[in-house]
Design goal:
alpha+beta, 7 helices, Deoxyribonuclease I, Chain A, DNA-binding, 6-stranded mixed sheet, 26% strand
Length: 256
DNA sequence: ATGGTAGATACTCTA
């Protein structure tokens, strides 16, 4: 079973690339972030024609997450329990083939010390609470998405320059580590050692051409699922296309 | 060098 995560930066702009990638890569499940559309405009029919059913929760202009799957999508959770209609649409959970999947678009944080930065840290604590309240660390649980945090030096093209900066600051890494301490392990890092590969390159300043990237898109799993992990790769191929997303998909394969 | 580009919306905000 192949499970992928991809921040597409507008699903309606990216739908041709997304469908082409689904047919080429053949993932069983894809967790999508930054759909940037209301549910009425989600391209559900096009995806169904490509063989994927979808669960999604979006809003106008910003955020929005979805789970696409070849298999039935069960027990869907849209946002955190208790979220009202105004809450930012950044989390969707569902069960596929017995695996509990939580797909997140972690807040960017804007700049250290800002209200948005505090929102990011608070949001990550809510995410950990959600795991504590609803997930079993001894079961097959998968957390993935755009975490907007690089966890280790190898995840950042210029770790010295990023020290104390957004995406790599101590409070962000600590908050994300707290989520990980639920009992999750980074599939990419476990299987590939301390390589330095990235999943996101800023559109600006020629970051892609210079490989000035960050690995901020992750697939984290509980130990029972980690034992079944065969491979985890970052597929850079869509990043070479014209009008790409700024993120590349990450895909993990499990013997399940 | 505090820029650069992309997307959605409506002439700016977010990333």
């Amino acid at each position: 079973m192949k499970i992928a995560t991809w921040n597409v930066n507008s699903i309606n702009v990216r739908i041709p690339q997304l469908v082409e990638w689904l047919l080429a890569a053949g993932p069983d499940v894809v967790c999508v972030q930054e759909t940037k559309t209301i549910d009425e405009n989600f391209p559900e029919i096009v995806l169904a024609e490509a063989g994927y059913q979808a669960a999604f929760t979006g809003q106008k202009s910003y955020n929005g997450v979805a789970i696409l799957s070849k298999f039935p999508i069960e027990d869907v959770q849209l946002g955190f329990p208790g979220d009202d209609d105004e809450a930012q649409k950044r989390m969707i959970g569902a069960t596929v083939n017995g695996i509990r999947i939580v797909n997140t678009y972690v807040p960017n944080g804007s700049e250290l010390g800002s209200d948005k930065f505090k929102f990011k840290l608070d949001w990550l604590h809510r995410l950990r609470s959600y795991f504590d309240e609803t997930c079993d660390p001894n079961g097959d649980v998968l957390l993935c998405g755009d975490f907007n945090v690089g966890m280790e030096a190898e995840d950042v093209w210029n770790p010295a320059g990023y020290e104390g900066k957004l995406h790599f600051s101590k409070p962000e890494r600590a908050a994300m580590h707290y989520v990980k301490q639920f009992g999750l392990t980074d599939v990419f890092r476990d299987l590939n050692g301390n390589v330095s590969e990235f999943s996101w390159w800023d559109y600006r300043a020629g970051a892609w051409q210079k490989n000035h990237g960050l690995r901020i898109d992750y697939i984290w799993v509980t130990p029972t699922l980690a034992e079944k992990a065969k491979s985890c790769v970052i597929d850079k191929s869509p990043r070479y296309l014209d009008l790409p997303s700024d993120h590349a998909p990450v895909i993990a394969e499990f013997t399940i």
